[in-house]
Design a protein that fits this description.
eight-stranded antiparallel β-sheet; 14 strands; four-stranded antiparallel β-sheet; 8 helices
């Protein structure tokens, strides 16, 4: 699906915008399912296995930061990744054998929905190689006002900045780090149905949503099948045991075949330990770990 120019752009910059990544019918179904989940969140008063609630959430005014693991909550999200234009982009950039790392449907609430401080996904889950990326499928139009994704081009080829604060892994870079060059940031806005792609090592973040509309973006984080997680990374798989791990690997295979021969590359690695007091989500890690906000300066 991607042109050679698009592949070259992604290789140089570590990100890409893909328009019309889904059909109109697929987009309509994704919206229907998503708004149904938001409606059902009215009955929820605490974050659980499905919802991360934002401050101010109530039955009268649902406010979510995200719907967790949508590909496990509803089969349509899984089917979309395996059989759509998204699948073609996945294979274009990662090769024929691909796995899903995780997914999330960020539903940044209007009127101040939580920011995601600047970070590199790789810092959370280093692997044996960095053939890893994230898709961000826009389910509604994303504008400057409702907290779009921002990236710093080329940082996927540079160092992994410190994500530590107060002696713990807080999941965000220090905005005063001299290697953090905010002036080079690019803001990724687009029409519903457009999709961002960013490399796991690219610095990225998103500001609070100051608009009167929710920012709905479906994220899939995926990797080549020969990229294996390192012990100590933020992953549930370390607690599974060998038999359950084998089953889990098969469940996470998106295309092609499993690979039992990890590809080892010279990649920068720092294990994300010790964890923040509450490491149940990036929002909790950044908050309880005492991350400094880069968005207080803009």
């Amino acid at each position: 699906m991607l042109t050679q120019d698009q592949r070259d752009f992604y290789d140089r910059n570590g990100y890409l915008m893909v328009e019309n990544a889904v059909t109109d019918e697929q987009l309509a179904e994704l919206r229907r399912i998503t708004y149904d989940y938001i409606e059902k969140s009215r009955a929820v008063s605490e974050s659980n296995d499905v919802y991360d609630l934002d401050e101010g959430h109530s039955a009268e005014t649902p406010r979510l930061t995200r719907i967790k693991l949508p590909h496990k909550q509803h089969p349509y999200f899984w089917e979309l990744l395996r059989n759509s234009r998204l699948t073609e982009v996945l294979n274009d950039l990662l090769g024929p054998d691909t796995m899903i790392q995780t997914s999330k449907l960020n539903t940044k609430a209007p009127g101040g929905g939580a920011a995601v401080e600047w970070h590199q996904d790789w810092a959370f889950y280093p692997h044996t190689n960095d053939t890893m990326l994230a898709f961000g499928l826009m389910l509604e139009d994303v504008t400057e006002e409702n907290g779009p994704l921002m990236v710093i081009p080329g940082t996927h080829k540079g160092p992994i900045l410190s994500h530590m604060a107060n002696g713990v892994f807080c999941g965000a870079v220090d905005p005063d780090d001299p290697l953090f060059e905010l002036d080079k940031a690019v803001t990724l806005t687009g029409k519903a149905g457009s999709m961002t792609v960013h490399h796991a090592r690219v610095l990225h973040g998103s500001a609070p949503n100051t608009s009167d509309r929710a920012r709905l973006i479906l994220f899939y984080e995926c990797h080549a099948a020969d990229a294996w997680p390192l012990l100590g990374a933020g992953s549930y798989i370390h607690s599974l045991g060998q038999r359950k791990l084998w089953d889990d690997l098969q469940d996470r295979l998106v295309t092609g075949e499993l690979c039992l021969t990890p590809r080892l590359e010279q990649v920068p690695v720092t294990i994300p330990l010790p964890p923040a007091p509450d490491a149940s989500s990036i929002f909790k890690s950044q908050k309880t770990g005492g991350a400094k906000s880069a968005f207080a300066k803009v």
